[in-house]
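User: Just a sanity check before I run the rest of the batch. Below are the structure tokens for the first item. I only need the designed sequence back.
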């Protein structure tokens, strides 16, 4: 039986179906999870997808963090459940304090949508093991509140511990400190990033590349070999 990966839908989620398709293409079984349900249906991992949950009111991800499903996600993530937050999902993870720092509006004050060059900085997490450290990839990016910020102590700690998972190359699209595009927790089971790997899983759509597919094959291999 293949791994089952849950995808949470919040009010305002946009990319939950795309994420389910990416999971299916990787060979796992996507499981739809609803924000009001605490039951994770015994999934092996969870993805918090992109979108504008609750219209980004207050702050992006601030309301979703208190959804019933997040109570269980937070508890199980702390116990080792693999969790990936994409764009709005990354924002939710910072609001839930599963990842440090926070997300602010882009420094140029505009929505941005582009294919973004990234460097893989950490290939040892549950979601990045099919990459190589130093590998350069292109992943679509689309956000309004994508500027990663943290105090200097937190930034230094992330850098020293190798917890910057992805870094923007050639162009910083939103003013993120240290060109940070994604980070991981200390255990490596929780990863968040602003770009959208689910839009780069087959040549016909998105960037025309499959640079995002290793996110989903990485977690599948980890779960199957566990």
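Assistant: Here's the designed sequence for the first item:
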């Amino acid at each position: 039986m293949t791994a089952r990966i849950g995808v949470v839908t919040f009010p305002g989620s946009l990319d939950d179906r795309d994420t389910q398709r990416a999971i299916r293409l990787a060979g796992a079984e996507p499981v739809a999870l609803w924000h009001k349900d605490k039951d994770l249906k015994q999934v092996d991992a969870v993805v918090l997808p992109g979108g504008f949950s609750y219209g980004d009111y207050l702050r992006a991800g601030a309301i979703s963090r208190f959804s019933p499903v997040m109570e269980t996600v937070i508890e199980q993530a702390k116990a080792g459940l693999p969790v990936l937050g994409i764009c709005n999902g990354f924002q939710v993870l910072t609001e839930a304090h599963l990842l440090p720092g926070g997300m602010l509006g882009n420094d140029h004050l505009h929505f941005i949508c582009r294919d973004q060059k990234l460097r893989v900085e950490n290939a040892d997490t549950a979601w990045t093991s099919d990459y190589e450290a130093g590998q350069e990839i292109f992943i679509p990016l689309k956000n309004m509140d994508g500027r990663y910020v943290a105090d200097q102590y937190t930034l230094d700690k992330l850098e020293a511990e190798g917890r910057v998972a992805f870094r923007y190359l050639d162009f910083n699209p939103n003013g993120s400190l240290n060109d940070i595009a994604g980070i991981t927790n200390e255990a490596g089971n929780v990863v968040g990033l602003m770009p959208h790997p689910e839009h780069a899983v087959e040549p016909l759509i998105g960037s025309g590349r499959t640079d995002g597919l290793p996110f989903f094959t990485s977690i599948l291999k980890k779960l199957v070999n566990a």
